[in-house]
Amino acid sequence: MSDSPTARQRVADASTTDNGTTGSDPAAFRTEIVEDLARIAPAQWDALLAAQSEPTPFLRHAFLHALHASGSATDDTGWSPRYLVLWATGDKADQGQDGGDRLAAAMPLYAKAHSYGEYVFDWAWADAYQRHGVEYYPKWLSAIPFTPVRGSRLLAESADARALLVRVALALAEESGMSSLHVLYPSAEEAPLLEAAGMMMRHGVQFHWTNAGYESFDAFLATLSQKKRKNIRAERRRVAEAGISFRWLRGAEIDDEAWKLFNRCYRQTYREHHSTPYLNLDFFRRIGDAMPENLLLVVAEREGRPIATSLVVYDASPGVSTLYGRYWGALEHHPCLHFETAYYQPLEFCIAEGIGTFEGGAQGEHKMARGFLPVATRSAHWLAHPSFADAVERFLEREREGMSAYMDELDDRNPFARR
Fold first, then answer.
1. How far apart are CA 288 and CA 156, in angstroms?
2. Residue ranges, CATH 3.40.630.30, the chain
3. Cβ neighbour number for residue 259 with a 10 Å cutoff
4. Would you say 154 and 162 are in contact if contact means Cβ atoms under 8 Å apart?
5. In the chain, which end has fewer C-beta atoms inside a 10 angstrom radius, N or C?
6. pLDDT on residue 16
7. What is the mean pLDDT of each run of 10 residues along the chain (419 residues)?
C-alpha cells in the first residue's frame, strides 16, 4: 500500500483521541501489505497474537501459513492474502529482536473473488450488485479462511495501534476501488471499535457448550431435561450396538497414515454432498507438524477397520480452555455416527481435560438438543457505494430485530432441566 495522502490523514486522525490529546505518533509506524506470511517472523506474529483479548489457534502463524502454502487459500482459490501490517519504527531499543522494525499491529486480510468459505452469507448483496450492473467482487475480507470462529482480528500492541489499524484498513478499502470491507467474527473488544469507525454491524448466532465442572459425561447428562437425556443415550447406544469403538489421537500420535485416513474421510463426505473440499492433505500435514499441541483426531473403528474421523482444534491454555469442532468425515454410514464422532467424543475429551468451552461451529439448531446453547456473534461491514450501503443498513436493522426474536425463541427451548 502506498503512503497516500488519504491513508496518512486517516493515520493522523486515529492518533488523536476524542478529547483532543495525542496518542501514538503516526510517523512512528510504517504501513505494509504483506502477500506472503513467511515474510513475517513466526515468533513476532505469535507474540502479538498472544497479547490479544481473544487469541485462537486459527490465527497462529503456522495455521495461516499452512492455508497459503498448501494452496488452500491462495489467489488461485479466490483468497488472495493481503495482510495489513503496521511496523513500529524508531530507536533500536524499541525494535524487534532481530534489530528490524517491530510488528505493532496486523490484520488478516484477503482480496476475495467470491463469498465461499466465509459462513457470514452476503450472496444476496452480491446478487443485488450484479442486477444493477455494479461489481461486488473483488471485495476486502478480514477473516480466517473456512473458519467461523470468533476471535481477535485486529492484532495490536496497544489501543492506539489498534485504532490506527482500523483507520488504515478503511483508507485502503476507499482507495482501492473495491466494493467493500468485511470483518467476520471479531472479538467482543473489537466489535464496538469497528462500529465506532463507521462499519455496519451484523448479528448472528452460534451454539457453544459450557463445561460446568462435570466429573463425567453422565454428570453432564444429568443436567439435561429427561427427553434430551434419553435421546442422547439412545443415540450413543445405537453406535455401540453397531460394534463401533473410538480412539483419541493427540498431536504427535497423529502419524502420516492417520492424516491419510482423515483426508479420505473428509473428502468422501464432501463428495457425498456433491461439493469440493476447501482443504487438502498437505494442509493437514503442515498443521500436524507445526502445531500438534492443538490437535485431536477422533477415530471410529468397526471390526478392526477405521470408518470415520473427526478433527478438533483446542487450546488448553490457562484462562482460554476452548475446543473447536472443525472437520469430520466417514467411509461408512451408520445411524448417529456423526453425533458420536463429532460431538459426544469431543465432549468426553472436554470433560476429561477440564476444557471450559466447546464451540460447535456455524449454524445448527440440532446442537441445542445436545447441550449447546445459543451465543451471539458479530461481523462488521463497510460498503463503498452509498445507495447500496443505505439499503444494506436498512436490511441489517430488520435482520437484527429478527435475530433478537430468534434468540428469545431459542432461549425458550433451553435443553437443560428446569430447576
1. 28
2. 5-204+376-412, 212-355
3. 21
4. yes
5. C
6. 38
7. 42 40 61 97 97 96 98 98 93 49 96 96 97 97 97 97 97 97 97 97 96 97 96 98 98 97 96 94 98 97 97 83 94 96 97 94 86 95 97 96 93 83
Rounded to an integer, what distance in angstroms lies between the CA atom of residue 36 and that of residue 48?
18
Instruction: Note whether 153 and 195 are within 8 A (CB).
Output: no
User: Collapsing DSSP states into helix, strand and coil, what is residue 110?
Assistant: strand
Residue 108 CA to chain centroid, in angstroms?
Answer: 11
CB 208 within 8 A of CB 164: no
Overall fold of domain 5-204+376-412: Aminopeptidase (3.40.630)
CATH class of 212-355: alpha beta
Residue 353 burial class via C-beta count within 10 angstroms: exposed 0-12, middle 13-18, buried 19 and up: middle
Q: Do 24 and 15 contact (CB within 8 A), yes or no? A: yes
Per DSSP (E only), the strands in 293-409 are 295-302, 305-315, 322-330, 357-362, 373-383
- DSSP annotation of 292 reads G
Q: Quick one: which H or E segment has residue 29?
A: strand 29-34
Residue 319 confidence (pLDDT)? 66
Q: Cβ neighbours of residue 202 under 8 Å, at least 6 residues apart?
A: 120, 378, 379, 380, 381, 396, 399, 400
Cα separation, 228 vs 355, in Å, equals: 23
pLDDT score for 23: 45
Instruction: Report the C-alpha dihedral over residues 207, 210, 216, 220, rounded to 10 degrees.
Output: -70
Cβ atoms of 299 and 306 within 8 Å: the answer is: yes
pLDDT of residue 362: 79
Please state whether 322 falls in left (phi above 0), alpha (psi between -120 and 50) or beta. beta
Q: How many CB atoms lie under 10 A from the CB of residue 302?
A: 17
DSSP 166: H
Cell 463428495 -> residue: 271
Look at the alpha carbons of 372, 374, 380, 385 in this order and tell me if their dihedral is positive or negative.
positive
